[in-house]
Amino acid sequence: MTKCVVLADPRGFCAGVDRAILTVQTILKAAQKSGKLVREDGLPPVYVRRQIVHNKHVVEDLASQGAVFVQELSEIPDAAAQAGIPVVFSAHGVSPSVKDEAKRRGMHVVDATCPLVGKVHREVLRFVREGYEIIYIGHKGHDEAVGVVGESPEHVHLIEHADDVATLDFTPETKLVLLSQTTLSVDETAGTIAALKARFPWIEEPPSSDICYATSNRQAAVKLVAQQSDCVVIVGSANSSNSVRLMEVAQEGLGDRGTAYRVDDANELEPAWFDGVESVGVSSGASVPDELVSGVIAALQDRGFTGMKSVETIKENMHFVLPAELRRQPSRA
Ligand code: SF4
């Protein structure tokens, strides 16, 4: 029997990641056209706060083209604000305190927050205005969760798992609503929601799930892939929430039959993973360029996995326009 690769579709880039990367590329391209890619004052053409998307290859590529990545706005000199150098906020969003700091320092902000993350920020503001306490399911310390909780730290209560529900204490007089990070595991979150409803039967949910279309679609596809594979390789960085969730979903689908691995690229594949394996499932997180998946497939082909099967669950056609700050620019890519 031919050993084969079972490829998940959809996989890889989502509309929010696509837009965030294009945002930085558009600024770089405009700087190049106007001859300001290498400036006399030594300032870069663009700063990006945090990783624009959680993928080290994407970040390294944009950095090699001139973008400078910082963790905090304090690392950006005042001269950059005075010179009008753009500062891009990443796809994961920021808390209001970051926006306030940028405004106070007169920075030229281009906000590449994914519109679906922006939707959760707006939900927080609306529900707080209406007198709700918000239970937010997310990962402590993740950029997206930090930004959302920062909208109203006193009214947003972050929990990670069903076990955390026991730590919450609200009386039935408290208006309660649950929101969540966009990149959670659909199945695990359903368990946490069930635990919340059991403890607080009056808790309300937003009109539509906060887990985004890209996260749910990639998880549904990898679930089917895992059922047809002996092991699964997920391409994605360790700090990419949706990539790590994909690996967990794949592992659940495999059960005791095999193991799901996560790699940044083909260099991290271990030969021992494929001993006795006939079919390898492959997928990638929403922040992963498809050439990294092609590299993994090529490496697997070199190891004898020459057959190829695609498991397609849905066709995606989501697209987000560039941030308003860039739409007026004629140099748009
Ligand atoms: S994974 Fe979802 S929320 Fe995150 S950037 Fe992509 S579309 Fe937006």
UniProtKB/TrEMBL annotation:
What pathway is this protein a component of?
Answer: Isoprenoid biosynthesis; isopentenyl diphosphate biosynthesis via DXP pathway; isopentenyl diphosphate from 1-deoxy-D-xylulose 5-phosphate: step 6/6; Isoprenoid biosynthesis; dimethylallyl diphosphate biosynthesis; dimethylallyl diphosphate from (2E)-4-hydroxy-3-methylbutenyl diphosphate: step 1/1
The record's remark on the cofactor is: Binds 1 [4Fe-4S] cluster per subunit.
**Cofactor requirements of the protein:** [4Fe-4S] cluster
Residues that, per the record, bind isopentenyl diphosphate? H54, H92, H142, S240, S241, N242, S287
Q: Which InterPro entries match?
A: LytB/IspH
Q: Which residues form the active site?
A: E144 (proton donor)
- Which residues take part in binding dimethylallyl diphosphate? H54, H92, H142, S240, S241, N242, S287
Any one GO molecular-function label of the UniProt entry? 4-hydroxy-3-methylbut-2-enyl diphosphate reductase activity
Binding sites annotated in the UniProt record for (2E)-4-hydroxy-3-methylbut-2-enyl diphosphate: H54, H92, H142, T182, S240, S241, N242, S287
Keyword entries, A-Z: 4Fe-4S, Iron, Iron-sulfur, Isoprene biosynthesis, Metal-binding, Oxidoreductase
Task: Specify the superkingdom.
Answer: Bacteria
Swiss-Prot/TrEMBL catalytic activity: dimethylallyl diphosphate + 2 oxidized [2Fe-2S]-[ferredoxin] + H2O = (2E)-4-hydroxy-3-methylbut-2-enyl diphosphate + 2 reduced [2Fe-2S]-[ferredoxin] + 2 H(+); isopentenyl diphosphate + 2 oxidized [2Fe-2S]-[ferredoxin] + H2O = (2E)-4-hydroxy-3-methylbut-2-enyl diphosphate + 2 reduced [2Fe-2S]-[ferredoxin] + 2 H(+)
Q: What is its EC number?
A: 1.17.7.4
The UniProt entry, under Gene3D superfamilies, shows: 3.40.50.11270, 4-hydroxy-3-methylbut-2-enyl diphosphate reductase, catalytic domain
User: Known Pfam families for this protein?
Assistant: LYTB
Give me the residues that bind [4Fe-4S] cluster, please.
Answer: C14, C114, C212
Function of the molecule: Catalyzes the conversion of 1-hydroxy-2-methyl-2-(E)-butenyl 4-diphosphate (HMBPP) into a mixture of isopentenyl diphosphate (IPP) and dimethylallyl diphosphate (DMAPP). Acts in the terminal step of the DOXP/MEP pathway for isoprenoid precursor biosynthesis.
Q: Which family does it belong to?
A: Belongs to the IspH family.
Q: What is this protein called?
A: 4-hydroxy-3-methylbut-2-enyl diphosphate reductase
Whose protein is this, by species? Bifidobacterium colobi
Q: Which gene encodes it?
A: ispH
